[in-house]
Amino acid sequence: MKISFGLIVHNGEPFIKYQLESLYPHAHQIIVVEGAVEKFRHASTPDGHSLDRTVEVIKNFPDPEHKITLIQREGFWPEKTEMSNAYMEACTGDYIWQIDVDEFYKNDDIKKVEEILSDNPDIVRVDFKTINFWKGFRAVMRGASYIYGADEFIRIYRFKPGCRYSTHRPPTVVDEKGKEVRGRIVSAGELSGEFGIFMYHYSYVFSNNVKSKSAYYAKMGWGKGCDDGVKWAGAYWEKLKNPLRIHLINFPPSWVEPFNGEHPESIKHLIADIDFHEDGKLASFLRSDWRRFASAGALITEAYLQAEKAETGRVRAALKILSALLFPSDLRTIRADRTILHTFFKCLSH
Question: Which of 51, 154, 277, 342 has the lowest CB atom count within 10 Å?
Answer without folding.
Answer: 277
